[in-house]
Design goal:
82 residues; alpha+beta; Alpha-Beta Plaits; two-stranded antiparallel ribbon; 4 strands; 29% helix; binds iron/sulfur cluster
């Protein structure tokens, strides 16, 4: 007898797509650790000199979590996309 289980992976993927990392720039101390860890997600704005999140269609959760873990001021957080 076979048993088929429907997974909810499509639901998880959908939720990931709507979460974006944000930086509380007022708390950021400009250490650059997030850029070192995730240069494809975080960058320095050449005009303002401030750290920014690169605009991506999807953010790999494990990489963002790693950047959060090394951020000395805990100023990176997940936010629901508009
Ligand atoms: S790791 Fe945190 S404090 Fe350092 S530059 Fe990135 S956001 Fe700013």
């Amino acid at each position: 007898m076979s048993l088929f289980i429907q997974t909810s992976s499509h639901i998880c993927e959908s939720q990931e797509l709507h979460m974006i990392p944000v930086i509380d720039i007022g708390v950021c101390n400009d250490c650059g650790s997030c850029i070192e860890i995730c240069p494809t997600i975080f960058k320095r704005n050449n005009e303002t000199g401030l750290i920014e999140v690169i605009d991506l269609p999807k953010y790999p959760e494990d990489h963002v979590q790693e950047a959060m873990s090394v951020c000395p001021t805990d100023c990176i957080a997940w936010e629901k996309a508009q």
